[in-house]
Design goal:
The complex is a heterodimer of chains A (183) and B (260).
Chain A (H helix, E strand, L loop, with lengths): L3 H12 L2 H23 L2 H17 L11 H31 L9 H16 L4 H10 L4 H8 L3 H22 L6
Chain B lengths: L5 H10 L5 H9 L1 H17 L13 H10 L2 H4 L6 H14 L20 H9 L5 H7 L9 E8 L12 E9 L2 E9 L6 E7 L6 E6 L5 E5 L11 E7 L11 E6 L4
Antiparallel strand pairs in B: 1-2, 2-3, 3-6, 4-5, 4-7, 7-8
The chains are: A mainly alpha (183), B alpha+beta (260).
């Protein structure tokens, strides 16, 4: 899901204008920081990773190809790889500790899952009304679409088409920005 | 062959119900529709994989300072003046690559890099199975059967103009002998968190139901035996992070349950 604003930012970024970096940072740093924070659980580490991601992205901006995906997707891919590197380092360290203690390291949720969750939350927050409330009820309340229509005084057909469009939009955003592509 | 309507696939992914026998027969044999259903069901499962949605958080201001400090001024290039300049850049990019302006799908055949193993596995699971079983095997969390017993539109209060654009909805549901209250709120992000209360007719007695998540949503268990004739109103407060369990006296929206 790329808006005109996203395309503007992506163009300015690729051109190498300092404002392009600032715009990209303003728009996407909550995504990067939240992914890092949820993966690492430490604010200081998440700040370091955010800094690393934007510095790396800026230095490698000539390799960013908007034909192959969105800037948000490219940034999340860099974030994801930074997370995986960090996780591997930690696993090696923890693994050594656990072997000494004779126990198994615990399984944490993978970076892909965290990235997907945060990207999904970002897009959910961008849905307009009443789509956001409809999707919140559809996901979390256990209500059927008929019940949601009744609760919100909307025609069933309207609720169904909001659900279809919103779910496809969420899916499209996940596919574009979930960072499963190599940067 | 007519494929299954996307609307039906979306409802199948969410509710595991819907569609005709013909849709079911089609799903068993059509790879395209099954893949589409898997993709939607995967999205639903992801959304339901935690209680509600995570709020996004911006990094603290010093991170930006550290980035600009790490990147030498030479690396940052000249400041880009007006917004018109960005427009010109975009236009030149669009002119050089006509397909790019139409988004990622318009640029010819691309590797479908998003076709992740999990997705392929989900699609593979259901090959050869009946479509009804297929939907069950997709791994979506099944919404349990519920009955709506009441609803309340939640409105801002005149004494809090700050929230004049806020709105919400509360739906009371009956499920497995108990009552649940599903609440969603639309309100500008604020310092603090939103808490849901039952408010007594006397305007002072309150029962806290719990907090809304970052998406402004929550599903709460109604206290068994609570007198809804008295606790007939729902109030959502903005609570500061001060450790106090009392109502902050800042009400964002309020509404009355029907039949009370």
């Amino acid at each position: 899901m790329r808006t005109a604003e996203d395309l503007d930012i992506s163009a300015a970024f690729r051109q190498g204008h300092a404002d392009g970096l600032k715009q990209a940072y303003d728009r996407y740093s909550p995504l990067v920081f939240t992914i890092a924070l949820r993966m690492l659980g430490s604010r200081a580490d998440a700040e370091d990773v955010t800094q690393h991601v934007f510095v790396t992205a800026w230095r490698r901006r000539s390799t960013f190809d908007p034909d192959r995906g969105s800037l948000a997707g490219w940034l999340t891919a860099i974030t994801r790889n930074a997370m995986i590197d960090l996780q591997r380092r930690r696993q090696r360290e923890n693994g050594a500790l656990h072997r000494m203690a004779g126990s198994q390291p615990s399984a944490a949720p993978g970076p892909e899952h965290v990235v997907d969750r945060v990207v999904l939350a970002d897009e959910l927050a961008r849905l307009g009304e009443p789509q956001r409330i409809i999707m919140a009820l559809a996901f979390y309340s256990g209500l059927t679409h008929q019940q949601i229509a009744g609760a919100m005084d909307l025609p069933v057909g309207t609720v169904k088409s909001h659900i279809r469009r919103s779910l496809l939009r969420l899916r499209a955003r996940l596919e574009a920005d979930s960072g499963t592509r190599r940067p | 062959v007519a494929h299954v309507d996307l609307e039906i696939l979306a409802l199948l992914a969410l509710e595991r119900a819907g569609g005709t026998d013909e849709d079911t027969r089609h799903l068993v044999t059509c790879d395209v529709c099954r893949a589409q259903l898997s993709r939607l069901a995967e999205t639903v499962a992801l959304a339901r994989s935690e209680e509600g949605s995570v709020p996004l958080e911006a990094p603290p201001a010093q991170v930006w300072s550290r980035i600009t400090a790490e990147l030498a001024v030479a690396e940052l290039g000249p400041p880009q003046g007006a917004r018109a300049a960005a427009g010109a850049d975009l236009a030149s990019i669009a002119a050089a690559r006509p397909a790019a302006a139409d988004g990622p799908r318009a640029s010819g055949p691309r590797r479908r890099w998003w076709y992740r193993p999990a997705l392929i596995a989900a699609a593979g699971l259901i090959v050869g199975a009946g479509a009804a079983t297929a939907v069950q095997q997709l791994g979506t969390v099944p919404p349990p059967p519920v009955t709506v017993v009441g609803r309340a539109a939640l409105q801002p209060l005149p004494q809090f103009p700050r929230w004049r654009h806020a709105s919400g909805i509360a739906v009371m549901e009956e499920k497995a002998g108990g009552r649940l209250l599903a609440v969603t709120l639309r309100a500008p992000a604020s310092g603090g968190f939103f808490e849901v209360w039952l408010l007594g007719r006397d305007g002072t007695k309150m029962i806290s139901l719990g907090d809304l998540n970052g998406a402004g949503t929550g599903v709460f268990i109604m206290p068994p035996g609570v007198d809804l004739g008295f606790y007939s109103r729902i109030d959502i407060s903005l609570q500061p992070f001060n450790g106090s369990t009392a109502h902050s006296k800042v009400s964002v929206v309020r509404g009355s349950l029907p039949g009370s």
